[in-house]
Amino acid sequence: MRRFAVLVAWVALSAVAEAQTQPPTGTSLPDAPAPVPQSHVPAPVLLELRTLESQFDLALAQDCAPERCFSKGCVYRDHVTVDMPRTSSLPGLGQTEGPGSVPSQEYLTQAQCEFTHEKSVPTQDVQALVRRLEQRLSKGWLKVKVGRQILQPISPGLRESPPPPEPPKPPAPVVEEKPVEPPAPTTWEANVALRELWVSLLPHFSWMIALVMLTMAALTVIWALRRLGRETLEEKALAAQLAAGSFDKAAEAKTPPDAEEPSPDGADPAPSEGDAETAFVTAQQQLWNDRIAQAELAKGDSMVVELLRDWLKAGEFELLAKAIFVFGDRLSLAFTSDGELAVRKVEFAGYLKTVDEKALLSDAEFFRLLNQHAISSTLMAQADAEVYRSLREEFGSNGVANLIDSLSPRHGALLFGHVPTDCQQDVARIMSPELRVRIANELLASNRISKEETVHLFEVLDAARAGKPLPPAPPAQGILDRGRQFDAAGALSVLLPLIESSARGELFARALGRSGGTLPLWYQDILYGDMLLKLPDELQRDLLLDVDVRGLAGWSSVQQPAWQESFIARLAPTMQNAIRANMSFVSREEQLRAARRGQNELISAVKKQVARGKVSFAEIIA
């Protein structure tokens, strides 16, 4: 035991002496090699040293890139040999004691590891790496010191491989010179002359062709500049014919007798544009002042009152504000206090508080719009137009559907055919399946409405607007297909997609029976989605090429969503992207206009294919 304590003290003193003589951590070690151990190193200690060296290489590779740090390995510094047995806590037992009683054990206690690094590595990073490696490798009684060395820079040329030596050139063969025979004389013929001409001109063809094309382009530009804006012979002949005809008569009627006489001072008698605008505004203001003075604004039975109320209903606050600034606040008498326009009155009052008169229309523009709206208001104020307009303004979709259901099938079909297009689809969706079949059957019977039926429809609408009982239907006349035409094909195009295919087949079978086995020509104006799906794929692609993409997108947007997706999925990817890109509309009115235009173009394309005999209309409509 005493020997073991002396050994431990000696190891501690040697470690302190070595720490005092060793250079600071992270400094570069001298280039002198480590000394060879002076005493025998046991094999277990060497095995521990090799294991430590492997751990050092692995740790260095993990913490520093291989191209920047290189391991130099680890060397032996010191070890401890232990041969004392474990002391017994129970003296007197038969255990051997003293040195040599147990096999000796060797432990590696100190080792030195080194690595080299490039000069570009910062010193702070190297010192941190040294401390990190010492912390990772030192454990228990094993203490590891890590040293470093800076690699000397080398020239970049040393990294380049020398070019391979050139292979020896074989000796040139000796060629025996043969006497040169003179060429045989060529006969000058036509083909020889053409070949030599071709060989001579071939290098010059590029600039010759470029010169010809530039000349043609210059002539085309000169001709276009000389013809730009000039009248054609047809335009000159038409202008001469108009000048000699009605235009001269109209000019003579409008020109006063003394208009062509020059003024005494030789000035142009024609008024300027500003004077003409001023004269127009003065005349129009006088005319409308007289109309407003003659109209009884409080009674509400004049054209001026109807015009002002239409503006207030439609939210035309800019025109109303301009009219009040021009004609005064007496126009407010045209608005009744029955509560019908109360919301619009409040909105218009708020608009008048913040409106700037300078931002409104000019007087000339205002009077031109006033004349146009006056004519439109006069037409809409007529009795028949007012009744028809009430379908849109005074009835909702449910109300129209209930009204159609309460009428006879014939008059209900006529009323559905006269419903405005923007609410016709909503009304068709609200109808029951049985009512749709009845209405479609009556619409397929005829596309005409007689005067008696028209009068009865107006009476029904007047009674419904007034909340009175509906008048009874007139007795049926002998001839059904008479009177003026209405858009029965358009109504059927909305109604048929909502009817089952079996019911559609029965409807067209009855229609064929009524018409003697031949469909009427006006049936060709009927178009609904399933008709396109019955066409062959190639014929469908040819048909869609005749339709504008915007119109096709508008027509597709008003179809049923499920059918719309299946139809678009059948198209080519480019056509799908084009249709989806054109399905955005500013308003419902724009969408319906595009849908109507697309439906008309599709109908024309189907008629064209039917006329060519590529498809039978009776096969696709049922």
Account of the 3D structure:
It is a single chain. This protein has 622 residues and is mainly alpha-helical. 56% of the residues lie in helices and 6% in strands. It contains 27 helices and 5 strands. It has helices spanning 2-21, 43-63, 123-137, 190-201, 205-227, 233-244, 246-254, 273-294, 303-314, 317-327, 342-354, 363-380, 383-393, 397-406, 409-417, 421-430, 433-445, 451-466, 488-495, 501-514, 529-533, 537-545, 549-557, 561-569, 573-581, 588-611, 617-621; strands spanning 69-82, 105-117, 143-150, 448-449, 484-485. The chain has a 3-stranded mixed β-sheet with strand order 1-2-3, sandwiched between helices. A two-stranded antiparallel sheet has the order 4-5. Strand 2 (105-117), helix 3 (123-137) and strand 3 form a beta-alpha-beta unit. It starts with a helix and ends with a helix. Residues 19-30 and 246-268 have low confidence and may be disordered.
Proportion of beta-strand residues: 5-15%
Shape summary: elongated
- Termini Cα gap: 116 Å
The secondary-structure class comes to mainly alpha
Instruction: From the alpha carbons, calculate the radius of gyration and give it in angstroms.
Output: 53 Å
Number of E strands: 5
Overall residue-averaged pLDDT value? 77
Helix content: 55-70%
What's the tally of helices?
Answer: 27
Poorly predicted spans: 19-30, 246-268
Sheet with most strands: 3 strands, mixed
Strand order of the largest sheet: 1-2-3
